[in-house]
């Protein structure tokens, strides 16, 4: 009995470890212009995996990618939704297959930024899948120094 519990714990750990490596945030940056700021984040979908793209309808059968903001400095305001790259199709689903991708978000500058403007923080939510199974939904944190 103890061996079965120990083995189940090891298998759970291995599955969790694999799940967190499906999508990796490579970098993020923000570029200021006169009236706006454009945030860009690069991410990689690991070899052999695919993730559901944000344009999928969340019908309960999978978890499409999305970005949530946890900290936006007070000199910035969201303008539009996140601009995602073009996706591929896997059966009936719109997906990002293994490879490198870039997302963008435009902000309006609402007032002059302070000397120490802070940090833009958020999470990218995703569900990675292999051909024969999907892993539980996961997220990766990102921070962009301004």
CATH class bucket: Mainly Beta
What is the CATH topology assignment?
Immunoglobulin-like
Summarize model confidence as the mean pLDDT.
Answer: 81
The SSE order reads HEEEEEEEEE
Shape, please? elongated
The CATH architecture can be named as: Sandwich
Gap from first CA to last CA: 53 Å
Helix count from the secondary structure assignment: 1
How many strand segments? 9
Q: Classify the beta-strand content into a percent band.
A: over 45%
Radius of gyration: 18 Å
What is the total number of structural domains?
Answer: 1
Task: Kindly state the percentage of residues in helix.
Answer: 10-25%
Please describe what this structure looks like.
This is Disulfide bond corrector protein DsbC. Keywords: Signal. It comes from Pseudobacter ginsenosidimutans. With 146 residues, this protein is mainly β. The protein has one domain (22-145): Immunoglobulin-like, CATH 2.60.40. Helix content is 13%, strand content 51%. It contains one helix and nine strands, in the order αβββββββββ. Strands 1, 2, 4, 5, 6 and 8 form a six-stranded antiparallel sheet that branches. A three-stranded antiparallel sheet has the order 3-7-9, with no helix packed on it. β1 (23-32) and β2 (36-52) form a beta hairpin. The longest helix has 19 residues, at 2-20. The chain is elongated, with a radius of gyration of 18 Å. The relative contact order is 0.25.
């Amino acid at each position: 009995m103890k061996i079965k519990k120990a083995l189940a714990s090891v298998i759970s750990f291995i599955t969790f470890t694999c799940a967190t490596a499906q999508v990796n945030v490579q970098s993020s940056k923000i570029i200021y212009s006169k009236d706006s700021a454009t945030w860009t984040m690069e991410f990689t979908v690991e070899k052999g995996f695919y993730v559901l793209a944000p344009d999928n309808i969340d019908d309960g059968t999978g978890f499409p990618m999305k970005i949530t903001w946890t900290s936006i400095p007070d000199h910035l305001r969201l303008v539009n939704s996140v601009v995602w790259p073009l996706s591929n199709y896997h059966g009936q689903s719109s997906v990002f297959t293994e490879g490198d991708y870039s997302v963008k978000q435009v902000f309006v500058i609402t007032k002059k930024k302070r000397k120490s403007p802070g940090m833009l923080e958020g999470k990218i939510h995703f569900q990675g899948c292999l051909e024969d199974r999907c892993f539980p939904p996961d997220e990766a944190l990102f921070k962009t120094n301004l």
